[in-house]
Amino acid sequence: MLFVRKVSISGYRSIRSIATELENLNVFVGKNGAGKTNLYRALQLIQSAALGNFAREIAGEGGMESALWAGRRIKGQPARITLYVELAPSQDSRTSYTYSIEAGAPGPVDAAFPLEPQVKEESISFFDGKRTRKILQRRVPLIGAVDASGQTHEMARNLLASQTALGSFDEPGEFPDQHLIRKTLCAWRFYHDLRTDGASPMRKPALAVTSTMLDADGGNLAAVFATLAHIREDTRDLREFVDAAFPGAELEIPPPGREATFTMTYPDFVLDGGSRRHFEAHELSDGTLRFLGLAGALLAYHHPPFVALNEPESSLHPELMKPLAKMIARAAQDSQVWVVTHSGELAAAIAETAGVLAREVVKEKGETRVM
Protein backbone atom coordinates (compact mmCIF):
# COMPACT_ATOMS: atom_id res chain seq x y z
CA MET A 1 0.00 0.00 0.00
CA LEU A 2 1.05 3.59 -0.60
CA PHE A 3 1.51 6.60 1.69
CA VAL A 4 -0.52 9.75 0.97
CA ARG A 5 1.86 12.68 0.61
CA LYS A 6 -0.37 15.42 -0.73
CA VAL A 7 -3.99 16.14 -1.53
CA SER A 8 -5.23 18.97 -3.73
CA ILE A 9 -8.88 19.97 -4.14
CA SER A 10 -10.35 22.72 -6.28
CA GLY A 11 -13.78 23.76 -7.47
CA TYR A 12 -15.65 21.66 -4.90
CA ARG A 13 -18.46 23.22 -2.87
CA SER A 14 -16.88 25.81 -0.53
CA ILE A 15 -13.35 24.87 -1.64
CA ARG A 16 -12.04 27.07 -4.42
CA SER A 17 -8.50 25.71 -4.14
CA ILE A 18 -6.71 23.87 -1.32
CA ALA A 19 -3.49 21.84 -1.38
CA THR A 20 -2.16 20.23 1.77
CA GLU A 21 0.74 17.92 2.53
CA LEU A 22 0.04 14.99 4.82
CA GLU A 23 1.86 13.31 7.69
CA ASN A 24 1.07 10.10 9.59
CA LEU A 25 -1.46 11.96 11.70
CA ASN A 26 -3.41 14.91 10.29
CA VAL A 27 -5.84 16.98 12.34
CA PHE A 28 -8.11 19.72 11.02
CA VAL A 29 -10.14 21.81 13.47
CA GLY A 30 -12.72 24.46 12.74
CA LYS A 31 -16.13 25.86 13.59
CA ASN A 32 -19.36 24.40 12.27
CA GLY A 33 -19.92 25.58 8.71
CA ALA A 34 -16.25 26.21 7.98
CA GLY A 35 -16.12 23.46 5.35
CA LYS A 36 -14.33 20.70 7.26
CA THR A 37 -16.74 18.07 5.99
CA ASN A 38 -16.07 19.18 2.41
CA LEU A 39 -12.40 18.28 2.91
CA TYR A 40 -13.46 14.88 4.19
CA ARG A 41 -15.95 14.34 1.36
CA ALA A 42 -13.37 15.26 -1.26
CA LEU A 43 -11.24 12.36 -0.05
CA GLN A 44 -14.24 10.07 -0.38
CA LEU A 45 -14.71 11.27 -3.96
CA ILE A 46 -11.09 10.35 -4.75
CA GLN A 47 -11.77 6.87 -3.42
CA SER A 48 -15.05 6.67 -5.35
CA ALA A 49 -13.12 7.16 -8.59
CA ALA A 50 -11.20 3.98 -7.78
CA LEU A 51 -14.32 2.11 -6.71
CA GLY A 52 -16.09 3.08 -9.93
CA ASN A 53 -19.00 4.97 -8.31
CA PHE A 54 -17.80 8.56 -8.72
CA ALA A 55 -20.93 9.66 -10.60
CA ARG A 56 -23.21 8.05 -8.03
CA GLU A 57 -21.44 9.86 -5.17
CA ILE A 58 -21.82 13.24 -6.90
CA ALA A 59 -25.45 12.49 -7.70
CA GLY A 60 -26.02 11.68 -4.04
CA GLU A 61 -24.88 15.21 -3.17
CA GLY A 62 -27.48 16.75 -5.45
CA GLY A 63 -25.57 16.52 -8.73
CA MET A 64 -22.93 18.77 -10.25
CA GLU A 65 -24.96 21.90 -9.61
CA SER A 66 -24.65 21.29 -5.85
CA ALA A 67 -21.10 19.93 -5.87
CA LEU A 68 -19.39 22.67 -7.89
CA TRP A 69 -17.62 25.64 -6.27
CA ALA A 70 -20.37 27.81 -4.83
CA GLY A 71 -18.56 31.15 -5.12
CA ARG A 72 -17.94 33.59 -7.95
CA ARG A 73 -16.43 32.04 -11.07
CA ILE A 74 -14.22 33.50 -13.76
CA LYS A 75 -16.33 34.32 -16.78
CA GLY A 76 -15.61 32.13 -19.78
CA GLN A 77 -13.86 29.38 -17.82
CA PRO A 78 -15.69 26.06 -17.49
CA ALA A 79 -16.75 25.02 -13.99
CA ARG A 80 -14.71 22.01 -12.89
CA ILE A 81 -14.06 19.86 -9.83
CA THR A 82 -10.40 18.83 -9.77
CA LEU A 83 -9.06 16.26 -7.31
CA TYR A 84 -5.40 15.27 -7.03
CA VAL A 85 -3.54 12.91 -4.72
CA GLU A 86 0.18 12.12 -4.50
CA LEU A 87 1.09 8.64 -3.27
CA ALA A 88 4.47 7.11 -2.47
CA PRO A 89 5.87 3.78 -1.18
CA SER A 90 6.90 5.62 2.01
CA GLN A 91 6.91 9.12 3.43
CA ASP A 92 10.53 9.77 2.36
CA SER A 93 10.59 7.73 -0.87
CA ARG A 94 12.20 9.33 -3.94
CA THR A 95 9.57 7.76 -6.19
CA SER A 96 5.90 8.67 -6.23
CA TYR A 97 2.63 8.42 -8.13
CA THR A 98 -0.02 11.06 -8.73
CA TYR A 99 -3.64 10.49 -9.62
CA SER A 100 -5.85 13.33 -10.83
CA ILE A 101 -9.41 13.59 -12.05
CA GLU A 102 -11.30 16.60 -13.42
CA ALA A 103 -15.08 16.54 -13.73
CA GLY A 104 -17.63 18.97 -15.09
CA ALA A 105 -21.29 19.18 -16.04
CA PRO A 106 -22.54 17.69 -19.32
CA GLY A 107 -22.38 19.83 -22.42
CA PRO A 108 -25.46 20.63 -24.51
CA VAL A 109 -24.84 17.72 -26.91
CA ASP A 110 -23.66 15.12 -24.37
CA ALA A 111 -25.77 12.01 -23.90
CA ALA A 112 -26.11 12.33 -20.14
CA PHE A 113 -28.52 13.33 -17.41
CA PRO A 114 -28.33 17.08 -16.81
CA LEU A 115 -26.78 17.01 -13.31
CA GLU A 116 -24.49 13.99 -13.49
CA PRO A 117 -20.70 14.54 -13.66
CA GLN A 118 -18.70 13.99 -16.81
CA VAL A 119 -15.02 13.05 -16.51
CA LYS A 120 -13.14 15.62 -18.59
CA GLU A 121 -9.58 14.54 -17.78
CA GLU A 122 -8.02 11.70 -15.80
CA SER A 123 -4.44 10.55 -15.44
CA ILE A 124 -1.82 8.71 -13.37
CA SER A 125 1.83 9.80 -13.43
CA PHE A 126 4.91 8.06 -12.05
CA PHE A 127 8.00 9.93 -10.86
CA ASP A 128 11.09 7.67 -10.74
CA GLY A 129 13.28 10.17 -8.92
CA LYS A 130 14.48 11.87 -12.10
CA ARG A 131 11.59 12.30 -14.49
CA THR A 132 7.82 12.03 -14.62
CA ARG A 133 6.00 9.73 -17.00
CA LYS A 134 2.27 9.37 -17.63
CA ILE A 135 1.24 5.75 -17.08
CA LEU A 136 -2.49 6.35 -17.57
CA GLN A 137 -4.08 9.04 -19.69
CA ARG A 138 -7.72 9.21 -20.61
CA ARG A 139 -8.39 10.45 -24.11
CA VAL A 140 -12.05 9.82 -24.86
CA PRO A 141 -12.90 7.30 -26.23
CA LEU A 142 -9.42 5.77 -25.72
CA ILE A 143 -7.29 5.15 -22.65
CA GLY A 144 -3.51 5.13 -22.89
CA ALA A 145 -1.90 2.90 -20.26
CA VAL A 146 1.68 1.71 -19.67
CA ASP A 147 1.97 -2.00 -18.89
CA ALA A 148 4.43 -3.96 -16.72
CA SER A 149 7.04 -4.02 -19.49
CA GLY A 150 6.91 -0.25 -20.06
CA GLN A 151 4.93 -0.46 -23.30
CA THR A 152 2.07 1.95 -23.92
CA HIS A 153 -1.28 0.57 -25.05
CA GLU A 154 -4.20 2.47 -26.52
CA MET A 155 -7.34 0.72 -25.32
CA ALA A 156 -11.03 1.26 -25.99
CA ARG A 157 -12.88 0.33 -22.80
CA ASN A 158 -16.29 1.60 -23.86
CA LEU A 159 -16.48 3.93 -20.88
CA LEU A 160 -19.26 6.44 -20.58
CA ALA A 161 -18.21 9.99 -19.76
CA SER A 162 -19.63 9.51 -16.26
CA GLN A 163 -17.36 6.48 -15.62
CA THR A 164 -13.77 6.67 -14.38
CA ALA A 165 -10.87 4.98 -16.15
CA LEU A 166 -9.21 4.06 -12.85
CA GLY A 167 -12.30 2.16 -11.77
CA SER A 168 -11.94 -0.11 -14.81
CA PHE A 169 -8.37 -1.32 -14.03
CA ASP A 170 -8.17 -4.62 -12.19
CA GLU A 171 -5.30 -6.43 -13.97
CA PRO A 172 -2.44 -6.70 -11.45
CA GLY A 173 -0.29 -8.79 -13.79
CA GLU A 174 -0.55 -6.66 -16.92
CA PHE A 175 -0.96 -3.21 -15.35
CA PRO A 176 0.55 -3.47 -11.84
CA ASP A 177 1.03 0.27 -11.21
CA GLN A 178 -2.54 1.20 -12.08
CA HIS A 179 -3.78 -1.73 -10.00
CA LEU A 180 -1.66 -0.60 -7.03
CA ILE A 181 -3.15 2.90 -7.15
CA ARG A 182 -6.68 1.50 -7.33
CA LYS A 183 -6.05 -1.05 -4.57
CA THR A 184 -4.58 1.60 -2.27
CA LEU A 185 -7.47 4.04 -2.70
CA CYS A 186 -10.07 1.29 -2.32
CA ALA A 187 -8.46 0.28 0.99
CA TRP A 188 -9.04 3.71 2.59
CA ARG A 189 -11.62 3.69 5.40
CA PHE A 190 -14.04 6.50 6.30
CA TYR A 191 -16.00 6.75 9.54
CA HIS A 192 -18.64 9.44 9.91
CA ASP A 193 -21.88 7.52 10.36
CA LEU A 194 -21.34 5.53 13.56
CA ARG A 195 -24.91 6.06 14.75
CA THR A 196 -25.83 5.68 18.40
CA ASP A 197 -29.63 5.89 18.23
CA GLY A 198 -31.83 2.98 19.27
CA ALA A 199 -31.75 1.47 15.78
CA SER A 200 -27.96 1.78 15.41
CA PRO A 201 -26.36 -1.25 13.73
CA MET A 202 -23.74 -1.19 16.50
CA ARG A 203 -26.43 -2.08 19.05
CA LYS A 204 -27.24 -5.35 17.30
CA PRO A 205 -25.46 -8.73 17.29
CA ALA A 206 -23.26 -9.35 14.24
CA LEU A 207 -22.92 -12.46 12.17
CA ALA A 208 -20.05 -14.56 13.51
CA VAL A 209 -17.70 -13.99 10.59
CA THR A 210 -14.02 -13.11 11.03
CA SER A 211 -13.96 -9.32 10.65
CA THR A 212 -10.57 -7.64 10.42
CA MET A 213 -11.88 -4.10 9.88
CA LEU A 214 -14.97 -2.19 10.96
CA ASP A 215 -17.69 -1.55 8.40
CA ALA A 216 -18.47 2.10 7.64
CA ASP A 217 -21.71 1.97 9.66
CA GLY A 218 -20.19 -0.10 12.49
CA GLY A 219 -22.64 -2.95 11.85
CA ASN A 220 -19.99 -5.63 12.40
CA LEU A 221 -18.64 -4.12 15.65
CA ALA A 222 -19.37 -7.23 17.73
CA ALA A 223 -17.62 -9.40 15.10
CA VAL A 224 -14.58 -7.07 15.10
CA PHE A 225 -14.31 -7.45 18.88
CA ALA A 226 -14.81 -11.23 18.66
CA THR A 227 -12.08 -11.45 16.00
CA LEU A 228 -9.63 -9.65 18.30
CA ALA A 229 -10.58 -11.81 21.29
CA HIS A 230 -10.96 -15.26 19.75
CA ILE A 231 -9.05 -15.23 16.43
CA ARG A 232 -6.13 -12.92 17.14
CA GLU A 233 -6.39 -13.65 20.88
CA ASP A 234 -5.07 -10.19 21.77
CA THR A 235 -7.31 -7.51 23.26
CA ARG A 236 -4.69 -5.69 25.32
CA ASP A 237 -4.97 -2.37 23.46
CA LEU A 238 -8.76 -2.58 23.36
CA ARG A 239 -9.05 -3.24 27.09
CA GLU A 240 -6.45 -0.59 27.90
CA PHE A 241 -8.44 2.14 26.16
CA VAL A 242 -11.80 0.96 27.50
CA ASP A 243 -10.40 1.14 31.03
CA ALA A 244 -8.89 4.59 30.35
CA ALA A 245 -12.26 5.87 29.14
CA PHE A 246 -14.40 4.10 31.75
CA PRO A 247 -12.25 3.36 34.81
CA GLY A 248 -13.03 -0.02 36.33
CA ALA A 249 -15.35 -1.05 33.49
CA GLU A 250 -14.71 -4.21 31.49
CA LEU A 251 -15.62 -5.16 27.95
CA GLU A 252 -16.87 -8.76 27.87
CA ILE A 253 -16.59 -10.62 24.55
CA PRO A 254 -18.04 -14.15 24.77
CA PRO A 255 -17.11 -16.84 22.22
CA PRO A 256 -19.58 -16.39 19.34
CA GLY A 257 -22.06 -18.95 18.13
CA ARG A 258 -24.05 -17.98 15.07
CA GLU A 259 -23.75 -14.36 16.17
CA ALA A 260 -21.12 -12.28 17.94
CA THR A 261 -22.06 -10.10 20.89
CA PHE A 262 -20.41 -7.99 23.58
CA THR A 263 -21.39 -6.51 26.92
CA MET A 264 -20.02 -3.98 29.39
CA THR A 265 -19.74 -4.38 33.15
CA TYR A 266 -19.16 -1.63 35.71
CA PRO A 267 -17.88 -1.79 39.31
CA ASP A 268 -20.92 0.15 40.56
CA PHE A 269 -23.45 -2.39 39.26
CA VAL A 270 -23.14 -5.63 41.22
CA LEU A 271 -25.82 -8.32 41.53
CA ASP A 272 -26.85 -10.00 44.79
CA GLY A 273 -24.46 -12.90 44.22
CA GLY A 274 -21.50 -10.56 43.91
CA SER A 275 -21.11 -10.75 40.12
CA ARG A 276 -21.38 -7.70 37.94
CA ARG A 277 -24.44 -6.95 35.85
CA HIS A 278 -23.82 -7.25 32.12
CA PHE A 279 -25.09 -4.37 30.01
CA GLU A 280 -25.82 -5.43 26.45
CA ALA A 281 -25.12 -3.17 23.48
CA HIS A 282 -28.73 -1.98 23.23
CA GLU A 283 -28.53 -0.75 26.85
CA LEU A 284 -25.34 1.30 26.56
CA SER A 285 -25.31 5.08 26.57
CA ASP A 286 -24.73 6.91 23.30
CA GLY A 287 -21.29 8.07 24.43
CA THR A 288 -20.18 4.61 25.52
CA LEU A 289 -21.33 3.02 22.27
CA ARG A 290 -19.71 5.79 20.20
CA PHE A 291 -16.37 5.30 21.96
CA LEU A 292 -16.54 1.51 21.44
CA GLY A 293 -17.33 2.07 17.76
CA LEU A 294 -14.27 4.29 17.38
CA ALA A 295 -12.22 1.64 19.19
CA GLY A 296 -13.42 -0.89 16.63
CA ALA A 297 -12.41 1.44 13.80
CA LEU A 298 -8.97 2.29 15.18
CA LEU A 299 -7.89 -0.95 16.88
CA ALA A 300 -9.21 -3.64 14.52
CA TYR A 301 -7.15 -6.70 13.55
CA HIS A 302 -5.94 -5.23 10.26
CA HIS A 303 -4.85 -1.63 9.83
CA PRO A 304 -6.04 0.10 6.64
CA PRO A 305 -3.43 2.35 5.00
CA PHE A 306 -5.59 5.43 5.55
CA VAL A 307 -8.35 6.13 8.09
CA ALA A 308 -10.51 9.27 8.03
CA LEU A 309 -12.67 10.33 10.97
CA ASN A 310 -15.29 13.06 10.68
CA GLU A 311 -16.12 14.71 14.03
CA PRO A 312 -15.37 11.62 16.13
CA GLU A 313 -16.12 13.59 19.31
CA SER A 314 -19.88 13.55 18.64
CA SER A 315 -21.85 12.19 21.63
CA LEU A 316 -18.69 11.94 23.75
CA HIS A 317 -18.30 13.57 27.16
CA PRO A 318 -15.33 15.97 27.37
CA GLU A 319 -13.63 13.54 29.78
CA LEU A 320 -13.31 11.08 26.88
CA MET A 321 -11.26 13.42 24.70
CA LYS A 322 -7.91 12.36 26.17
CA PRO A 323 -8.56 8.58 25.85
CA LEU A 324 -9.81 9.18 22.31
CA ALA A 325 -6.71 11.23 21.46
CA LYS A 326 -4.46 8.45 22.77
CA MET A 327 -6.37 5.87 20.73
CA ILE A 328 -6.01 8.01 17.59
CA ALA A 329 -2.28 8.42 18.25
CA ARG A 330 -1.92 4.66 18.68
CA ALA A 331 -3.70 4.00 15.38
CA ALA A 332 -1.40 6.51 13.62
CA GLN A 333 1.56 4.24 14.39
CA ASP A 334 0.20 1.75 11.84
CA SER A 335 -2.06 3.82 9.56
CA GLN A 336 -2.28 7.34 8.25
CA VAL A 337 -5.07 9.03 10.15
CA TRP A 338 -7.07 12.09 9.04
CA VAL A 339 -9.28 13.76 11.67
CA VAL A 340 -11.68 16.66 11.14
CA THR A 341 -13.20 18.06 14.31
CA HIS A 342 -14.82 21.14 15.78
CA SER A 343 -13.55 20.19 19.25
CA GLY A 344 -10.65 22.34 20.34
CA GLU A 345 -10.37 20.06 23.36
CA LEU A 346 -9.80 16.98 21.19
CA ALA A 347 -7.29 18.87 19.02
CA ALA A 348 -5.41 19.97 22.15
CA ALA A 349 -5.45 16.42 23.55
CA ILE A 350 -4.00 15.06 20.28
CA ALA A 351 -1.31 17.75 20.34
CA GLU A 352 -0.42 16.81 23.92
CA THR A 353 -0.44 13.07 23.23
CA ALA A 354 1.14 12.88 19.77
CA GLY A 355 2.85 16.26 19.37
CA VAL A 356 0.78 16.98 16.26
CA LEU A 357 -0.69 20.45 15.97
CA ALA A 358 -4.08 20.82 14.33
CA ARG A 359 -4.48 22.89 11.19
CA GLU A 360 -7.28 25.41 11.45
CA VAL A 361 -10.07 25.35 8.88
CA VAL A 362 -11.74 28.72 8.36
CA LYS A 363 -14.22 30.21 5.93
CA GLU A 364 -13.46 33.65 4.53
CA LYS A 365 -15.99 35.28 2.22
CA GLY A 366 -17.58 31.90 1.59
CA GLU A 367 -14.28 30.17 0.79
CA THR A 368 -12.85 27.35 2.90
CA ARG A 369 -9.17 27.73 3.73
CA VAL A 370 -6.66 25.68 5.70
CA MET A 371 -4.36 27.85 7.81
Structure overview:
The protein is α+β, with helices and mostly antiparallel strands and 371 residues long. The protein is 26% helix and 28% strand. It has 9 helices and 19 strands. It has helices at residues 36-51, 54-60, 64-67, 176-186, 221-232, 236-245, 286-298, 321-331, 344-354; strands at residues 3-12, 15-21, 25-29, 81-88, 96-104, 118-127, 132-139, 142-146, 152-156, 189-191, 206-207, 250-252, 259-260, 263-265, 279-280, 306-310, 336-341, 359-364, 367-370. It has an 8-stranded antiparallel β-sheet, covered by helices on one side. It has a 6-stranded mixed β-sheet with strand order 10-16-17-3-18-19, with helices on both faces. Helix 1 runs antiparallel to helix 2 (54-60) and helix 1 (36-51) crosses helix 4. The protein is globular, with a radius of gyration of 22 Å. The model has no long low-confidence stretch (mean pLDDT 93).
